[in-house]
Amino acid sequence: MHISEGILNTPTLVGGYVVALPILGYTLRSLNVDNIVKTAAFSALFLIVSFIHIPIGPSSIHLLFIGILGAVLGQAAFVAIFVALFIQGLMFGFGGIYVLGVNASIMGIAALFTSYIYNLRLDAKFFTPNVRYFAAGFLGVLLGTIFLFIVMSLNGLMGAGVTVFIGNIPLMFVEGIISLIVLRYLARIKKL
Amino acid sequence: MKYLLILLVPCALFAHRLNIVVYDDGDTITLKGYYSAQSVCRNCKVEIQAKDFNKVYKTSEKGLVTLAKKELPKTKMNISINGGDGHFEQMSYKLEQSEEAPTLATDAPDANVNPTTTGNAKAAKNEAAMADMQTSSGDTKASTGGTNSTTGASASSTSGAAVSGAEPKHRAVTRSRPEISAYDIGSALGYVFGVFGIIALILSRRKGGKKGSGCCH
Questions:
Q1: Which residue of A1, A29, A87 is the best one to mutate when testing the B interface, meaning the one whose CB has the most B CBs within 10 A?
Q2: B139 with B174: CB under 8 angstroms?
């Protein structure tokens, strides 16, 4: 889901920062001494899971945990993702500094939306805890992929966007299942 | 301000990571040396070593060296590039490996080399994007309908082995990838926690400052 340097045009790159920086400033306010350790830990988790590649056919996809971050951290998820992407772009070339705004907007906003949907008090008959846990992981990737598709389409890369979208469909289910396991465990030990 | 300076230290360290990319243009291969910040490695020493083969070339102003395949060994080669000041990268390459590669995509740096000469620039850009979305992770990738041969034509080599490229219909791309070690990941985690440590420090100072200002009124 990381867009590399040299793909997007300048207006999109600038637009990415225009969107990301105010959100970063706003979400930074949600950080406090109580939740900063948890945010740092999940930011580190986000960085680590990007290295776990799941082979699918001739290619592979990597985990994101956008949904889990959104569900656990709430608004602070955006900060966690921004910091992790910054370090990734700097040290490993996953994404980059110029596209940091776009990448952070794609994944961070997806995490914020997921957090909002996760915390909605919907019909408890259908929206059971297990459904919520699965939906968090599934929606995180789905929303991120939709935003990614929009960004790529704006840059005349609709074909590649469709390919990426299709490639990420298995990831939605994989993350949904992982999210179900992780969030269920966190709820059981009353850390959620 | 001092916090910002601390954060910028790794920028300087990693902005100049040297990379190699090899384009298979049919009868020729083109090597390109470039830094992580997308600037090319000009006049850099390129050394190709194999069994009974050892030659040194120099990259052009565009960071390119184009070589005729017939002058290169068929065995596995070790390609190294030295940009000076400790900037060094090497990779293994075998002429046949491109044909064995899965057909998927070209890579991003190529799209930046000669935008005016890319007949299928949009298609190449599309594929470049696909490659970089990390839906693929292989070191060797191949593309169909990529850019044309003018990259090769514009390249030069001081050894005299450079040739003008033929019109490639099938361009394969192999690039060096920095190996991510546990040490690198550990360092990255250290930076993540360090950044949040700085944020925590700022938060605690602000909190302390507010308390302090409140006490003295």
A1: A87
A2: yes
